[in-house]
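Same chain as my last thread, 411 residues:
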Amino acid sequence: MTKRIFKPEVLAPAGDFEAFSAAMMFGADAVYLAKREFGMRAAPKNFSQEELVKACEVAHSAGKRVYLCCNTLPRSRELLGLKPFAKEAEDAGVDAFIVGDIGVMSVLKEYAPDIDVHISTQAGIVNYASAREFYKMGAKRAVLARELSLDEIKEIRDNTPPELEIEAFVHGAMCVSFSGRCLLSQYLTGRDANRGECAQPCRWEYALNERTREGRYFPIEERDGGTYILNAEDLCLIEHLELLKNAGVSSFKIEGRAKSPYYVSVITNAYRAAVDFFADHPGEKLPNWIVEETDKVSHREYSSGFIFPGCPPKQNLNDGGYVRNWDIAGVVLESDGEYLTVLQRNRFFKGEELEALSPKERPARIVAEEIVDKNGERAEAANKAAEIYRIKCDKTFPAGTVLRIKNKIGE
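reply #2:
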């Protein structure tokens, strides 16, 4: 009998139903999302009850899971809202709650005892004693603090019950504050990061003002662009997934509930491909094309976070923005071997080279040799937002395939 190879879960984010569908299509084993209350990302559209029900139905029909965020720090007057929240989650068929507060955990366990509880990274689990106690309280999974090294993750795994699942972030934005416990946004803007309303002031440019000399401005800079002293680099561990698996991580979490469906498609696909590759080729180096996918979304400069002692993440001092080398051009609706029917998302021109990204596939290059608009007329460009165009192409791609184009800014 062939021994079954354990594959860690690929856990993708979704800020709306379109991003959820992208995660499903591009290989997520599970998706985490939020309703319009109690989630740590208030800016995305998030999910209505009807959308949550539909998401659970779609995921379960594909053998996948849905985790519902309830990871803000609610005030006492808000606790009454947890009872209907729990009941609606139970009615929808949610697989687990993601919780950062022990009081919230106790209330949810009372109102929806059959739904698993995952302890959020907001709880700041950095040792096995904490992980054990959460397990004793009924937690199914611990989402570890992002500030741990590989050896520390392994120590927690070795000293906790094997039934306790271990989840770790592997990709996405990093917070300058420990496990996202930040008050900067609340102080500067009145928007509480611990209630899902972070204005991301850590990404702003800062300077000094001398106390007794009004108007004396002292920029803190190493280059002409100034210095962004709190702006953390993004996390990218795609080349180190085998190390994390060996350390005992059973779920690889991608940050990004505020990210676009395009971002979710590309990054989920990359980590799906990486997990599958390492399962089939243990000990081998990840193919370059998979690593390169992580550069084809909008991102800050990458680091490996805290997993290697002595190599902590740095602050991106010279730029508060993103690296953005590629843009989505459209999404394939239909393919017949002669034309691609495409829903346009960004302008592209006749004769331009595009990349087509399909689930679990290496991206394929095509040229838009002929563009036909919705009236059947040949066009020099697909330049009308959200309209349907046809591109001459003798290759076939599944519906939902993403078409993208290299960003020419700065060339």
